[in-house]
From TrEMBL:
It comes from Colletotrichum navitas. It comes from the Eukaryota. This is NmrA-like domain-containing protein.
Length: 242
């Protein structure tokens, strides 16, 4: 992608469906694990925006290894194929197509729409329903112990509780940094819009075993004594958001 002309090139895998891409877009089929061909395909690219899904996240390591041998100035990795991926992609496209490379290279750029606290959410829910939500809390040390026990049992729930730990300890916000980029003319959502205005939509259907696990944790307060039913790979993205 060359910003002075906002030219885009799509690097796709043999298994990718590119039938809906505009005909004027340059498309190059690459094997991400073939370092030589990937380096060659990246030679005239300034910015790489990865849009792989959950199952392809690890394949991004191919880009990490290849990019130092190219002239790529910025790599925007995929965010685990979350629901907002396309909105994020549109925001990045707006930023990258109008901003000089010199202002983008070697930076960690973040997008931020809404950062509510537990209190903010509680107050808004109480305003909507006339009564505050029932809550359940656990200390950081307890969560750390639970994560260790999940690791020992090689459980798929480990990631969910690790995410709880870094969110609760403030590590998540530190990872994002403070270099937030604003997109011109974009109207951000508010809690009032989402909760009072009922614009909050369901993310995806929750598997029965995930619902059962969440109910168990809320009622009993202990996670590691739960014996889950079989968890499919499609459930893993949901577990990280518990």
């Amino acid at each position: 992608m060359k910003l002075n002309r906002a030219v885009a090139k799509v690097l796709d895998r043999a298994s990718s469906d590119i039938s809906n891409l505009p005909t004027h877009i340059t498309k190059v089929e690459v094997d991400i694990n073939d370092a030589t061909s990937l380096i060659e395909a990246l030679q005239d690219i300034d910015i790489v925006v990865s849009l792989v899904g959950h199952e392809g996240v690890q394949r991004q390591h191919g880009f990490v290894r290849a990019i130092p041998k190219t002239n790529v100035k910025l790599f925007s990795q995929s965010d685990l194929a979350g629901r907002g991926l396309y909105a994020q992609g549109a925001a990045y496209a707006s930023i990258f197509s109008t901003t000089p490379i010199s202002q983008l290279e070697n930076r960690a750029i973040a997008l931020c729409e809404l950062v509510p606290t537990e209190k903010d959410i509680t107050v808004t829910l109480e305003s909507k329903h006339g009564i505050g939500p029932q809550t359940s809390s656990r200390g950081l040390e307890k969560i750390k112990d639970e994560v260790e026990q999940w690791l020992e049992s090689v459980s798929v729930f480990t990631v969910a509780w690790y995410c709880h730990k870094i969110w609760g300890a403030g590590q998540q916000s530190q990872m994002i940094g403070s270099n937030f980029w604003e997109v011109d003319d974009y109207q951000k959502a508010t809690l009032e819009d989402l909760i009072l205005g009922e614009k909050l939509e369901a993310y995806r259907e929750m598997p029965d075993q995930v619902v059962e696990y969440s109910r168990h944790c809320f009622q009993h307060g202990r996670q590691s004594d739960f014996q889950p039913a079989a968890i499919t790979e499609s459930s893993l993205p949901i577990l990280t958001a518990l």
